[in-house]
Design goal:
Length: about 190
């Protein structure tokens, strides 16, 4: 479960426990037992204030949960866009990369097409599938990794690589007695 959703659910449970009918009833009974009108009124005002504050907190929690779940849904317009543009794009890529007479790519696409239909995407979403988390985030990370792989190594990484190469060469040198003797002559 998402940590933010778990935190919101925990806060909601805490507010619910604070405001059970039994707890409020006991607070009212304790206030009435004081027998002083000013104390009863002050206690009742405090109970009402805490109930209003808790109602506001519940409203905030509900809004945060709604935002969290709305962010996970893809709209019908987005589903239509994906189904009408993704399949033709895949077909175009497959036909461009396939050799003449090769039908394996077309067969694979024919198997893949029903998975990208409006009905399938809608049913999966109704069942709770999170397309953005399952597909969008891994694609983002994949692209991020590709881009970072194109960036030259950091100086510290380059130094570590050179150090490893030096160690490998020294080990090779130690395996050849004549070369090792010449190396010792140079360094002493």
């Amino acid at each position: 479960m998402d940590p933010q959703v778990a935190d919101l659910a925990l806060r909601l449970a805490e507010v619910a426990v604070r405001n059970t009918a039994t707890v409020i009833s006991e607070r009212i009974q304790a206030a009435k037992a004081k027998r002083k009108d000013s104390e009863v009124i002050a206690e009742m005002e405090e109970i009402i204030s805490s109930l209003i504050a808790d109602k506001n907190e519940i409203t905030q929690i509900a809004q945060a949960l709604e935002e969290k779940f709305v962010a996970q849904r893809i709209s019908q317009t987005e589903i239509n866009y994906v189904t009408s543009n993704l399949v033709p794009l895949i077909e175009k890529l497959a036909s461009a990369s396939a050799e003449e007479g090769d039908t394996s790519a077309q067969d694979s696409i024919a198997l893949f097409k029903p998975l990208i239909s409006e009905e399938t995407l809608t049913v999966l979403q109704v069942l709770g599938f999170n397309f953005k988390q399952a597909i969008g985030e891994p694609l983002t990370e994949l692209l991020r990794g590709y881009i970072l792989a194109q960036v030259p190594n950091e100086p510290s990484e380059a130094a570590a690589t050179l150090n490893q190469q030096q160690t490998v060469e020294l080990l090779r040198l130690a395996q050849d007695p004549d070369a090792f003797a010449r190396f010792q002559g140079l360094t002493s």
